[in-house]
UniProtKB/TrEMBL annotation:
ANK repeats lie at residues 235-267. This is Uncharacterized protein. The keyword rRNA-binding does not apply. The lineage of its organism: Eukaryota, Sar, Alveolata, Dinophyceae, Gonyaulacales. It comes from Pyrodinium bahamense. Residues 10-22 have a biased composition (Acidic residues). Keywords: ANK repeat.
């Protein structure tokens, strides 16, 4: 009996030690994630101010991501959303401390050292090099990044711009965790081009952010936009395609009731139904709604 009690006590001690080490590792990892933001601030100081962050959760919800996006890949009239997701420097928490395929170590290297390595690896002859394209002035964003974003982001907190729920007030960065519900980090300045400052860009941007209340408010003033295809990027979605992509049943129902063309293809020649079927959610109510009059 004494031996059994001793073994049980030892097992409890091992479990407690493992939990403590796991907690310490998680805390360290959260600090390391913030180092990414300090790398960006360092790059801004060195003249690469046209680099923006796009933090989000993976579709599975198992990992946090932070994409570094050049300004020329930010959607017009948007502050952070890229035209093409892959046209960026991509980091996932699944990579642990390895930053950008090992260009830096988020545990061992300083933000300055990582910025040094990134600049040293720039390929000036490659027109698609993300960091080379990010060189240039964007003082408004650089100031926002330090004075608003870094100043208000709580220690260890992870920002997130893509949520799995409708956002009725899409004017602040989301911060993961109920304990950060009151954190309000204003969005950065939007990218504005004279030719591109159009209602279609705004309404599709709200749809992409799942801010459907704002979408329907804009449709009241611009009903002709209901079937317009996004002229920027490769996806070429209409509003109904975007609702299908997200799996948002009620917004899709309201769009159809407002006159959205259920059979209109996007720029990739896919109908909203085909887009919905390509997604993992495959909601029966949505598929049934989008199939009426199509099949």
């Amino acid at each position: 009996m004494a031996g059994s009690a001793l073994r049980a006590e030892e097992e409890l001690e091992v479990e407690a030690q493992a939990e403590q080490e796991e907690g310490q590792q998680q805390q360290q990892q959260e600090v390391n994630y913030h180092k990414i933001f300090h790398v960006v601030a360092e790059l801004h100081r060195r003249g690469y101010q046209r680099l923006r962050i796009f933090p989000l959760m993976s579709p599975s919800g198992c990992s946090w991501r932070c994409n570094l996006v050049p300004l020329d890949n930010i959607a017009p009239m948007s502050h952070s959303f890229p035209l093409e997701y892959e046209d960026a420097l991509l980091y996932s928490s699944g990579a642990q401390t390895s930053f950008l395929d090992g260009i830096g170590d988020l545990n061992a290297d300083s933000a300055t050292a990582i910025a040094d390595a990134m600049i040293e690896n720039i390929n000036e002859t490659d027109p698609e090099d993300v960091l080379a394209r990010a060189k240039g002035e964007d003082s408004a964003y650089a100031a926002w990044f330090v004075d608003e974003f870094l100043a208000k982001l709580p220690p260890g907190a992870l920002p997130c711009l893509i949520a799995d729920w409708e956002q009725d007030d899409p004017y602040h960065f989301g911060v993961l965790g109920d304990e950060h519900a009151d954190v309000k980090i204003k969005f950065p300045p939007v990218r504005i081009d004279e030719e591109e400052a159009k209602p279609i860009v705004s309404i599709l941007g709200f749809a992409k952010a799942r801010a459907w209340r704002k979408v329907f408010q804009l449709l009241e003033d611009h009903p002709g936009l209901i079937d317009e295809i996004n002229p920027y990027g490769k996806s070429g979605f209409t509003l109904l395609h975007q609702a299908a992509w997200w799996g948002d049943v009620e917004p899709a129902r309201k769009l159809i009731a407002a006159g959205a063309d259920i059979a209109k293809p996007d720029s990739q020649d896919k109908t909203p139904l085909q887009v919905a079927r390509s997604r993992k959610h495959k909601k029966p109510d949505l598929l049934d709604l989008l199939s009426k009059g199509v099949e």
